[in-house]
Amino acid sequence: MSRLDPNDSYHMLYWQEAGEQLQEMEQALLKIETGHYDDETINHIFRMAHSLKGSSATLDLKDLMQLAHAIESVLTCIKSKTMMIDSAIVTTLLEGLDMLLEIHRELMTGADRMVDVSCLAARIEGLSKCSAIQATQQRKLKVVFEPDEEMLGLKAQIILNALEPVTEVFSISPAAYETLEDEAFGDSIEIKIDSKTPESLLRDVLDDVTGISKVQFTCAATVAAPVTETEVKPEMTEMVQSPQGGISVSVSEKTAVKVNILKIDQLINLVGELIIDKESLHSISNQLKKAYRKDKQVQRLLDVCEHLDYLGAELQEIVLSTRMLPLGTIFDSLPRMVRDLAIRCGKQVAFQVTGQEQGIDRGMIEALLDPLHHLLRNAIDHGIETPEARLALGKSAQGLLKLSASQGDNHILIQIEDDGKGIEVDKVMKKAVEKGLIDLDEVPYLTEHEWLEFLFTPGFSTATSVSDISGRGVGLDVVKANINKLSGIIDIQSQPNKGTRFIIKLPLTLAIIKAMLIKEGPCTFAIPISAIVEVFRLKDAEIIERIHSTGFSHVLHWRESTIPLLYLSNFFEINASLIEAEKLYVVVVGMGEKKTAVVVERILGEQEIVIKSMAAYTGMNKLLGPLEGISGVSILGDGGLAHIVDVSLLVKS
Amino acid sequence: MIHVILFKIAEEIYAIESVSIREISRTKELRLNVIPKVPPYIKGLVNLRGEIIPVVHLGECLGRETQGSVLPGRLLVVLAGSVPYGILVNQVLGHICLSEKCLKQPTDEMAVMTPYIKNIAHDAMETYFIIDVERLFQN
């Protein structure tokens, strides 16, 4: 059968297990290639291949069985140390694995297999035979069939069965005799056997087999043993996993259940509301404590509230984690792609991945795959130079490509960095003028950063040649569009000959953060606590002393230095009557080195809030427009909403 | 046959296909949270059972005269491209079925002045302007 039945639980179990086994085999093969492996790794792949062969056999899936068998044979030789691994062998094995993966996918779609796996299987099996270390005396035996003989594959098997007890069979041509059709067979088969076996014995044995017209022997020839196997070297790619380790998806999937994502969303909403009510209960009980300090019931209430706090926190963490997936789920497939691509481009690339454990909303993870692929492709194809070019520049022959993920207060940072040739700003300048994207007289006023932004324009490319791998490198505008769709932003940094870095910033759509609530006119704002440096009040004289205005902008004397000051009401264009007030509340916020003082109308207090993204409504062509300064919205205990302030924008202006 | 919900904005009657309408509710106890720096016809965000939806004053959106700061009485939650949006209207009148024959495309001048009108329908007594919510919210 060529298709699995989705309603048959045994079929589905097989399909899932097979998928996992194939993934593990791929990871292990890549590990082997880089030299980071031991006997257990080999045993592991062998077990996977063996298991796959067995289970495929029970479902009569011949193609899978054949390929798994071929891989198993090679692994047997490797296991018993009669064969050494080199990069070429791994490449062939990976080819076999790719074919297995393809067939595996097709099992669900039921697409008809047009390609014959026998050739690939034969090639894989050939690996084990060619690299046999022992010197042998081999001899060719040609068996010609009767002209009308049918079921030649079966006949060949019978011949082999007959020969097995009396001689050693090294190979048979055609190798895929088992599944080959009669027409494709030709009129004979050639078998390489041990030349020490006497001819008469062979003829006797073959006499018993019907349908043979002739048996021919060629002279014995000594086959020299190819002992020169290249030792395993970390040739093409090197993988360094982060010390914390990634979350092993295969382990967690074995005890997984399938749940409708909508149900998870409902759960998350409910838990969010529970947290909010918990906060209210907390504040109410605190009030009661003040008023009825000695009351036993109030004491009990407080105890229950404390336990509720703990329960709420646990629930929240677990439920959110169901919606979040570790980035490792997409990062894991990248080393293979990088390796294959580096080989294709003739470049040597060391690929470092960190931050696989960083969680990201399930809905975003699919959308990230394309942009990441694209940026990595660009880095390998256009960024990193050939080994010769690098050596000539005094760099190491192997280029470094780093992919990292980390979390900020309300965003996730993903960075792709290479130490290649960087982006030539002169070329960008020329191209931009050429395309009429900028006037000549504006040229001297642009910063280098602004020039790099041009790379994101559709159709812009400074690559001199078109390669089929990443086109002209024009995809950057598509990458930017995809990132924008996720409400993220992308930035480039580059230095000629030093390298290029792409920084992707994505909003954390799901998070519970501690924030300071601010009242400003009719609106309530929330500033993430992680961004707040200090909060204080200025009275009368202090206001005049410490705040100075220069035209449209204000500054504040703060801790021995001067920092910019802005009025939140001005920033958000809300009517507020603070300017003449006698006391002002100031919140100093900071991002790294930069700090800004923000004057607010009223401070409501600190609270844990659930961030809800407004991504569906914000953006260039959406209802709310870009909504600068607000990174999300949160539901408060009383059902009201607070706008979460995008501190990075406050600090920039 | 299309099924539409009829409602009033100022004194004019408009319609929206009922497949696009998710729910209708009163605005009396509605809590609108103002959004800073957005066009004036966006009245704010509303917390609808845990879901946050932006609310638009349809009268102002269409450039009709409005009754000052009084909130229109009804909220329609519509789906445009499967994303929910809120529309404030004065009164919901009911629903009718209109046959395809009664539907007319708006004239070119109309299309320019009010691009959100999908169709115009006539029956014996009234003329209804059917609003294109997809167009309205995906400008």
Distance from N terminus to C terminus of chain B (CA atoms, Å) equals 28 Å
What class would the helix/strand composition of chain B place it in?
Answer: mainly beta
The whole-number mean of residue pLDDT values of chain B reads: 84
Q: Can you give the mean pLDDT of chain A?
A: 78
Any idea what the shape of chain B is? globular
Question: What is the count of β-strands of chain B?
Answer: 12
Write out the strand line-up for the largest beta sheet of chain A, numbering strands in chain order: 6-8-10-11-13-12
Strand order of the largest sheet of chain B: 9-1-2-12-11-10
Helix content of chain B: 10-25%
Secondary structure blueprint with pairings:
The complex is a heterodimer of chains A (653) and B (139).
Chain A: H1 9-33, H2 39-58, H3 62-79, H4 87-109, H5 118-130, E1 136-145, H6 152-163, E2 169-173, H7 182-185, E3 188-194, H8 199-207, E4 212-217, E5 221-223, E6 237-241, H9 249-254, H10 261-291, H11 296-323, E7 324-326, H12 328-331, H13 334-345, E8 349-354, E9 359-361, H14 362-383, H15 387-392, E10 399-407, E11 411-418, H16 425-434, H17 448-453, H18 476-485, E12 489-495, E13 499-507, E14 511-520, E15 523-528, E16 532-539, H19 540-546, E17 547-550, E18 553-558, E19 561-567, H20 568-571, E20 583-591, E21 594-600, E22 602-612, E23 630-635, E24 641-645, H21 647-652
Parallel strand pairs in A: 6-8, 8-10, 15-24, 19-21
Antiparallel strand pairs in A: 1-3, 1-4, 1-5, 2-3, 7-9, 10-11, 11-13, 12-13, 14-15, 14-22, 16-20, 17-18, 18-19, 20-21, 22-23, 23-24
Helix pairs in contact in A: 1-2, 1-4, 2-3, 3-4, 3-5, 4-5, 10-11, 13-14, 14-18
Chain B: E1 2-9, E2 12-17, E3 21-26, E4 32-33, E5 42-48, E6 51-57, H1 58-61, E7 74-80, E8 83-89, E9 91-98, E10 103-104, H2 108-113, E11 117-122, E12 127-131, H3 133-137
Parallel strand pairs in B: 2-12, 6-8
Antiparallel strand pairs in B: 1-2, 1-9, 3-7, 4-5, 5-6, 7-8, 10-11, 11-12
